[in-house]
Structure formats: structure tokens, C-alpha cells
Fold:
Amino acid sequence: MNDNKVTNKDVLVLMSCYNGEKYLPQQLESLKAQEDVNMSCIIRDDGSSDGTVEYLTEYCKENKEFSLITGENTGVIRSFNLLLEEALKTDCKWFAFSDQDDVWLPNKLKRAVELLSERETSEKKPLVYCSNLELVDADLNHIGYMRQPGLKFDKYTSVVQNCATGCTIVFNRSALEKYMEGIDADMEMHDYWMFLIGVFFGRVVYDNKAGILYRQHGNNVIGAKNQNISGFVNNMSKTGNHERMFKDFLKIYGSSLSGDDISIIEGIALANKNILCRLRALFDMRYHGYSTKRTLNFKLRALLGKIY
Structure:
């Protein structure tokens, strides 16, 4: 941090890396170029086998606002959770997730902090910012945008689909502390869990303006999904822990959720339990995705008892 006193401009960026030496230089320089915030960054290398650690070691020596943690390969969720444990030890006010291969526009953090600050109250509830993304190819040429303008979500849509891409997320200390209560949960992804913390315990601020050039290449952990028919069919064959995640969410936070919220989450957590639960997920139109294709995918899974 630039000052000993915590200010509204202090933002701690958390970056997990794995074999990322090809694109890291551009991303790190875009973090350094963030305007009108006091940015610091903790980077965790998740067991890279290329030159990532060597590059980061030298970079952090030359740029004191960056620090490096090395460790064995744990996977993306656990790696970010280890970073969050480090974040909790600091006195920072705002925190942000970062990938290793994007490029941030100079006002990305400034805009996020300003929008979050407008929503601050004396209750100190979890606040989570997320945004659209500008899709670019490996050479940063424009492809399009992740989402169409006017994205709207509520608690029902949020349990069907995550709209908070991790590298766009900025959150406050209250969100961090609430997240940490479930750090050992069976998460689908760390960003989805943080999104749910905002949805059910505080507020999510969605920004249609993209602050990140989201690089699409063969090594993306998630990336923008293929939206054609073959992609749809392929997605239907996948399994995951969507259902298990919401069972854990209820187990951990159930005592502090309202009855209505519990009912909404149970619509997913119990969707595969029996035919009545499947029919509820199928015919209750409040459960839908952010696109027609995603809604059809969800409804078909509900019909087949394959809410993953």
C-alpha cells in the first residue's frame, strides 16, 4: 500500500498463475497502469513448470507493489482460496480477482470502487462488483462482448447461472469475511461463490461497461463458451457439482437465510431428488438463464434429472 492508513482507494488484487509466462507481462503492466487507486497485488503460482516463477520473482523484486507466493498445483479454486486467506490478513478495504492472461483498461478498478462506494451503507453488507468483458483474440484484436446490454438477474436466475466472471470481480471486506465461512465448500468456482455471497447477503453491482480485454486462446481455464449447437450438445454431456455446491451453501449459510431464499436454493439443491422436484425446476419459469440457450439447457437437464 502507498499509505499506512487504509483509504477508499486501496485495492488488493489477487492473481493465480499457472504456466502463464507468455501473457503475464502485458497483464502485470495493465495492473500497474490502474488510474487513481492504490493498487497492490499478491500473486500465487500454482505449481508452474515453465518460466513463470522465474519471471515473477524478478518482476516482484523490481515492483514492490507486487508480491509472490509459490506452491504446489492445487487447481484454480483452491489457489484463489489460498490467496483469499492471505487477503484476510491485510487491512485492505477492496479486493479484486485477476487472471494471468488478460489486459485491464486503466480505469477498471477506479470505476468498480466508485460504483461500490455509492452502495455503501452503515450496515457493512457484502458488496460485489462484476462487469461485461470485451472478448479479444490472442493478439488483443476485438472479437465482441461477453454479454448483450441490459443483463438482468435475480435470485432465481443466479442459482441457475453465474453472471460474474472472476477476473471482473471486485468486492469489499464484508464479502470476503462471509465467503471465508464457506471456504472449504464444494464450490463450482470461486467466482460463483463470491457472486452468491453478494446476491443472498448484500448487493451485486453489475456494470455493462467492459473494463477488461478478455483474451480467448486455447489455454483459458473457462473462457467464452461455444454457443453453437455442437457446443450445446457437448455441454449437456458434462457433469459437475452445481447441485452439490448449493447443498453446501445451504448447510453453511442456511441459518442466516430467509425462508424464501432457502426455498429458491432448494429448487436447485434438491432438483434431482424426485420427480416432483424435477417438475418444479422444469415448470417454474422463474428458474431460467441469461439466454434462451442456457434456459433450454437447464430445463432439459431438469427434465432428465441431470442438474449437475
Summary: The chain has a mean pLDDT of 91. The CA atoms of residues 11 and 94 lie 5 Å apart. The longest strand covers residues 38-46. DSSP finds twelve helices and eleven strands in the chain.
